[in-house]
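Review this chain:
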Amino acid sequence: MIWGLFSAAGPYKTVRADSKLKKDNESFSSAMTIADSGYSMENGECCLPCTPQEEKQIVKGLMGEAELHLKEGNLYYVVSARWFTKWERYVGQGSDDPVVDMQSSDSQDLVDLPGRITDRPGPINNSDIVENGSDGENDDLELSRTLLEGRDYVLVPQKVWEKLVQWYTGGPALPRKMISQGVFNKKQFNVEVYPLRLKLIDSRDDSEFTIRLSKKASLHELYGRVCALRGTEREKAVIWDYFNKYKQSRLVDSSRTLEESNLQMDQEILLEMQVHESYPSLSGQDSTGNELALVALEPSRTSLSIAGGPTLSNGHPGTSSLNTRPGSALNSGPTDIDDGFGAYSAVRRGERGGLAGLQNMGNTCFMNSALQCLVHTPPLVEYFLQDYSDEINTENPLGMHGELALAFGELLRKLWSSGHNTIAPRAFKGKLALFAPQFSGYNQHDSQELLAFLLDGLHEDLNRVKHKPYIEMKDWGGCPDKEVAEECWRNHKARNDSIIVDVCQGQYKSTLVCPVCSKISITFDPFMYLSLPLPSTVTRSMTVTVFYGDGSGLPMPYTVSVLKNGHCRDLIQALSAACCLRSDESFLLAEVYDHRIYRLFENPFESLTCIKDEEHIVAYRFSQEGTGKKKLEIVHQEKSAPDLLKGGGWKNFGVPLLAYLEDDSPSGADIELAASRLLSPLRKACLSSVAHNGKENGVLSEANGEASNSCNGQSESGSQSMDKIELESEDTLTQNLSLQLFLTDDRYSSRKPIFKDSVVRSGRDRIKIFLDWTDTEHKLYDPSYLKDLPVVYNKSGFSAKKTRQEAVSLFSCLGAFLNEEPLGPDDMWYCPGCKEHRQATKKLDLWTLPQILVIHLKRFSYSRYLKNKLDIFVDFPIHNLDLSKFVKQKDGRSYVYELYAISNHYGGLGGGHYTAFAKLIDDNRWYNFDDSYVSPVNEADIRTSAAYVLFYGRIESEMNVAAGGTSQDHTGS
């Protein structure tokens, strides 16, 4: 990936590393230009040619320039993420804007201690990502095969690499070329980090050699490289695709690419020498020259052999009147007739189909898992085992010209015709890479993402609608839901009509409500699968200190228990119950860093995962009457100890106070009055030891989940404190004003005295001031309540006990999916009433469900600061999943389902493994498909916490009376 633009593994976000410290430093304008400066060498080290900020600006400029001129053949260099992170930290020195968008798995590599100056990194060191060290030349250096972009390495353009080498020296250089992937209008640019590596076997002496070439290289280039390596004449050389040590097909010296020839990473190719001028095709022989026992599984019913049944006489598909691009499945050269370990030769009459494994082609377990689930979907099996050639749509610009459907259909037929053998899905993977470059290469991917692409691609390739009509959207205001839903479905079917729509698509009812004008918009949309969130039962303890925004009470810490993956509103609700928030009051959450308010959590739906255990969170308690008014933030400062070099100064301390102002442009006297009110609970004359000792009484007991304080009006300790606090009148406060207040800016970098008769104007929603604590303030007030702010969670050793996770019902996940929720800030809705984009609330309902229901459990969560996988056990029914109560359209159709396949994911992010469970309907038995290995499995063992994608088939109404109870009893919340 280059800055998150092109990566098969998906975008990576920068982990926040001391971003609060970085936030305060000056950022440099992107328009700034800096002249290159020379450098000299001294003691083997490069003299510093630029400041860190200048280095950063130069590199960002060069990266931006490269991004504007993307083209095939551009050079990029692989750089160790470990070294590059040190450089970013050095040139950033507090900037929150990364040069390259990346994510490191080593959090310790990214975190600096506050105030620490980051040293300049040493020479570039790529040794941690190179496998064979200094062996060989740079062109022969081998990258470790388990690297992930963003975690282990970054890619930088050639000019950036040259600058970095100029400044730091080091290496080794690891150049890689940019290639164009995809066909038709789906092309995109990728850097080929791992060129194709082939094992050349010379049949003359059985010697082996390694050849590295781009997968975009031609067979002509391959012949040139092999002949040069072995000193043979090109005219006499014959190279075979020797996949799995079988002669698959002869590789003809031509412009056809290695990718189009389905050559895979680390596979063998065989070099033979022509003895006679005429060299016969041996595609029907094994490596010893013996004839393979090729058995035609069924006669071809049409000239389109790949769709009507395999023709095995010579390995070539039949001709067809359909026109596709050269090299397509319909008019390509020899197909992989033996794409596995003797797939067709091992077929025995009467042997059960559907039990073949899929060979792992290099981190393709995600693909194998998804494919096994689809090829065991009964309606699809029935469809693709018949002649479907008439439904191939080669004209659909949204499809793959029929090639993806043909490749999938051929693979399905092999899997159902090969008994217990293993199939290598080379041809299918090759087509997949052409049309979905994000799945090319040999990185691990997501089986659900592949399923989504494949179902959509199969639909477009098999769309019976050759020319989609234009349908104008209507305003359905006032029409009955049933009438609107039926019209929307007719419109959808007028443009989309395929076997996938027939069996896999249902219909949502989506309701949007504008939060401003209350405009309601109802639409009915098709869906292919349900992506259900997992309402985690895992909780976390969070300690938050509550401050009174009107100075009516002392600050008090409260520890509450909330859902680990909850939202800020959940934390506010827990705090409200703990401290007995009145109905006319509200909370405003804030994070405090460096004794200042670093950020306000004003969006109640912001995830709690963005709040770390080591952070300091406060809740300011206000009357709801002040909501929307300008806020006053008071930052406390006191004299710092004299420094021999810098002398004395002022430093921040304690927790800032926050209040609402009555006037948007208050006077200095108004600000002093507000500050005095907030400080009034701290007046020493009004304090008692009882109040001080009650500071910790707001902590909830984690054993019983109940607060130790009472909720009768004020808390018990709070009421004792308030009994000792007598609020003075405004006149008394005004007479005793002695506060030294200074107006500051957004960055807290200036200090301007505030006078009583001055007017403070600010275009911001928050006025920030410094309060200097002189000897007078220390005599009048007790600042101890403002200090020692507790962290969200204090990790006390290793005594914490791990509790067993509770099961989550599938119905709970479905309920969470159907709950009303606001749209995200990046997904605003254009309200036709307001004529503005609004963060509307959205409510989904299930209107109709399809014959095949695919349910995706959202186990993976991604945010700017966190990647996470939830290994929660989801309690899903195997038999009689009754969803009738969730479906709004009551049309008498059965909505009871039976499970028949599961895509499983084991392990964590980046290092997991996919398998599949699938049921053979004919013999009513479950099997475990683990790449090449297939074994029976008991039905009782298929429900695990690894279940990721569930496949259900609808039970027709006459079959609804089934043995055992139905899932209607499990309608959990």
